[in-house]
Structures are given as structure tokens and as C-alpha cells.
Specification:
The protein is built from 9 helices and 6 strands, in the order E-H-H-H-H-H-E-H-E-H-E-H-E-E-H. With about 220 residues, it is α/β, with parallel strands linked by helices. The protein has 2 domains: about 140 residues, Rossmann fold (3-Layer(aba) Sandwich); about 70 residues. A 6-stranded parallel β-sheet has the order 3-2-1-4-5-6, sandwiched between helices. Helix 1 packs across helix 4. The longest helix has 19 residues. The protein is globular and about 55 Å long.
């Protein structure tokens, strides 16, 4: 596959932070006197923006659910954990990043999280120097599955969308990349590809190791 740019999602794709976030959220909910958020319910929140998350948690726990306090406590829990233990890195990430750098292929991160959070996670993991551009929540009006985030990523790299591979673990991410005209490759995390999503993917890989052989 001859490409000029690769655009990476972050959580669940580069880092095993979806599983971590689920565990931390359950701990915060317990401390708030709430419980019972199943993994299947959590999966419904993957790849969603703040407004959608707030709607989900209010539907789940009632209109009185304090979304702002929940976000703050989850953020504190995440920072505390990663300060102590670091960021859990997905297999093959640095092998792929070194491969792309050796080929002179441009790279970007396209994430629904804020710049502050994304920059910190990438820095702690040691991955920040490998990326030419970051596209974060503040950079777009419309989140995934809207095509704007991936269109913006290709634009910041100075490339046409069709010249870029998009690496995603989420269904909304694949929809966004496909609609934006990039070449979607899915590396599933918590959610397997659906029958709707499979035709949108150039490939479905078991890990980032497998992506290396696709990009030359």
C-alpha cells in the first residue's frame, strides 16, 4: 500500500486506555454511590464526544447525575493512575511508528479528547516525537462519525485524504475516516467490526504489528 500519510486514533488504538477508563469510571461511580455500569454499556460510549457522553450518563443514572463532577473525578483518577503506572501501550505501536518514520511517511493523531489530555498521554508514552500533527476536540466543530476530524487531519498534513491511511479501533472512527475519503484500516479493541463497517475497511488487523506489512 503506497501512502503518504497515516492518521492514528489514540485511545483503544495506540493505547489500551478504553479498558483502563472503564475500570476507573466504575471506581468513580462506586464512590458517588452509583454502580452497575456494565462493559457492554460502556462500549456504547466509546468514540463519543462530551455532549453525547453526558446524555448517555444522564439517561443511565438520572437527570440529577453531575456530569461535570464525574468528568473531573475520572480525570483525576486517570492522571493518578498514569502518573504511577504509565500509559498501557498496544502491541506493535512503536514498531509501526519507527517503520513509518524510516519511510518518511507523515503522521497525525486524530482524537476526540482535548489537546491537553492527548499531549500528556502521548508524552508519557514516549510517542509524541513521532507525530507531525495533532487534531483534537478543540480543532473541529463536529466529532466522529462526522468526516471533519479526518479531513482536518489530512489537511494539516498537507495531503489529500486519499493519500492517507486512517487507523481506527471504533465504529464511529471508521465511519468518519471512510466519509472523509481516507483509507480506513480497523484494529478492533473492545468492539469488533460490524457487517455495516466491514465494507468500509481496506483491512481489519489483529494488532498494529499487522499494519506494518500493509504500508510500504
Amino acid at each position: 500500500m503506497n501512502v503518504k500519510g497515516v492518521v492514528f486514533d489514540m485511545d483503544g488504538l495506540m493505547f489500551d486506555t478504553e479498558n483502563l477508563t472503564y475500570k476507573l469510571q466504575c471506581g468513580v461511580l462506586d464512590a458517588m454511590g452509583l454502580s452497575g455500569l456494565s462493559l457492554d454499556e460502556y462500549k456504547l460510549t466509546v468514540g463519543k464526544r462530551t455532549a453525547d457522553l453526558e446524555s448517555f450518563f444522564r439517561d443511565r443514572f438520572g437527570d440529577g447525575f453531575d456530569c461535570a463532577a464525574f468528568r473531573v473525578k475520572c480525570r483525576e483518577a486517570y492522571i493518578g493512575y498514569t502518573d504511577k503506572h504509565g500509559v498501557p501501550i498496544k502491541d506493535g505501536l512503536f514498531g509501526l511508528l519507527r517503520h513509518l518514520k524510516a519511510l518518511g511517511i507523515k503522521t497525525a493523531v486524530c482524537t476526540s479528547t482535548t489537546f491537553c489530555s492527548a499531549e500528556r498521554t502521548l508524552r508519557i508514552a514516549g510517542a509524541l516525537p513521532y507525530f507531525d500533527e495533532l487534531v483534537c476536540a478543540e480543532d473541529v466543530k463536529n466529532g466522529k462519525p462526522h468526516p471533519e476530524p479526518f479531513r482536518k487531519s489530512a489537511e494539516k498534513l498537507g495531503l489529500e485524504p486519499a493519500e492517507c491511511v486512517a487507523l481506527e479501533d471504533s465504529i464511529n472512527g471508521i465511519k468518519s475516516a471512510f466519509a472523509a475519503g481516507l483509507i480506513p484500516i480497523m484494529v478492533p479493541d473492545l468492539i469488533p467490526p460490524t457487517d455495516e463497517i466491514k465494507p468500509m475497511c481496506r483491512a481489519v488487523c489483529a494488532s498494529l504489528f499487522d499494519v506494518i506489512s500493509l504500508i510500504e
